[in-house]
Amino acid sequence: MKKIPIKLDSCPIIESVFEIRFDSDIDREVVFPLVYSAIEKDFQPPQPLQVLQIPENIRSIDPNLQFQPSYRLVSIGDPNVSLQIGPRVIVFGFTRDYKGWEAFLSYVTKYLGVLEGTKVIRSVQRIGFRVINFFDWDIFRKGTDLKISLAGKELPLLDTSLRTVFEDGDYKSTVNVINNATLNRPLSVRVGSIIDIDTSTTHCDEFFSNFTRYMGKAHDVEKSLFFSLLSDELILKLKPTYQ
Question: Three-class SS of residue 126?
Answer without folding.
Answer: strand
